[in-house]
Structure formats: structure tokens, C-alpha cells
Design a protein that fits this description.
CATH topology of the largest domain: Arc Repressor Mutant, subunit A
Protein name: HxlR family transcriptional regulator
Number of helices: 7
Strand content: 5-15%
Domain HTH hxlR-type: 23-121
GO molecular function: DNA binding
Distance between the termini: 44 Å
Keywords: DNA-binding, Transcription, Transcription regulation
Pfam family, one: HxlR
């Protein structure tokens, strides 16, 4: 993100227009706010993957939820589904050019989580302890 991008984002925040219904920032949040979207997008940063590989890499996602997530990401132009005419059939998923533009923000979010995750857990635990008292 450039300095100009930061200035523009700050102006949008000041104007209160960042999360209006027709704002691109709101659209972006809606796309990636799903619990599994960022996980699946991150799993695809290493290149094309089969459905079973994505289940294994995503840690805890059911096949049904993965299929729904992939369809939603495809519908937003972030993931491509490639069907190969083989026996048995082979299907691979990969990031589209548009999906690849999310790699850097996802890495930044992942780094934030690594840096601050423990503090968030500590806060949750202390908040839980306070609510019990």
C-alpha cells in the first residue's frame, strides 16, 4: 500500500463512506469475512490444488463447506475450477489473476495474527474471567 493509498483511505474514513452499501471496501469485507474464505485462498497461494488437498490443508473444514466456499469464491472471480478430461476425473482449483491480488493482504493478515494472536487469546480469557466474577 502506497502513501497515496493510505491518504485516500484516511479521507474515506473521515468522510464516513468506507462501508456504505455501494463501497468497494464493504464488498471486499463481505467476500473475505466468511470463516473459511481466507483459509482457502491462503491454501491456494501455493498453486493449484485438488478438493481433497484443500480439505487436508484447511484443517477442519467439511467437504460440503469447502465446496460452498469454493463456489462463492468462483462466483466472485477469485478462484478458477479446472476440470480435466481424464479417468478418473480430475478437478483442480487455483487463484485467478484477481484472486492473486489478495495474496499480499492475506499474508499481512496472517502476520498480524502471528504477532497479535496470543494477545487476543489472553484478552478473551481475561474477559471470560471477568464475566464469571
Amino acid at each position: 500500500m502506497t502513501a497515496a493509498d493510505l491518504v485516500s483511505a484516511a479521507k474515506d474514513l473521515e468522510a464516513g463512506t468506507v462501508f456504505l452499501a455501494d463501497c468497494p471496501a464493504r464488498l471486499a469485507i463481505e467476500i473475505i469475512a466468511n470463516k473459511w474464505s481466507v483459509v482457502v485462498l491462503f491454501a491456494l497461494t501455493g498453486g493449484p490444488k485438488r478438493h481433497s488437498e484443500l480439505v487436508a490443508l484447511s484443517g477442519g473444514i467439511s467437504r460440503k463447506v469447502l465446496t460452498q466456499t469454493l463456489r462463492r469464491l468462483q462466483g466472485n472471480g477469485l478462484v478458477d475450477r479446472q476440470v480435466y478430461a481424464e479417468a478418473p476425473p480430475r478437478v483442480e482449483y487455483s487463484l485467478t489473476t484477481l484472486g492473486q491480488t489478495l495474496q499480499e493482504p492475506i499474508v499481512m493478515l496472517t502476520e498480524w495474527a502471528r504477532t497479535n494472536g496470543e494477545a487476543v487469546v489472553d484478552f478473551r480469557e481475561s474477559a471470560d474471567a471477568r464475566s464469571i466474577d
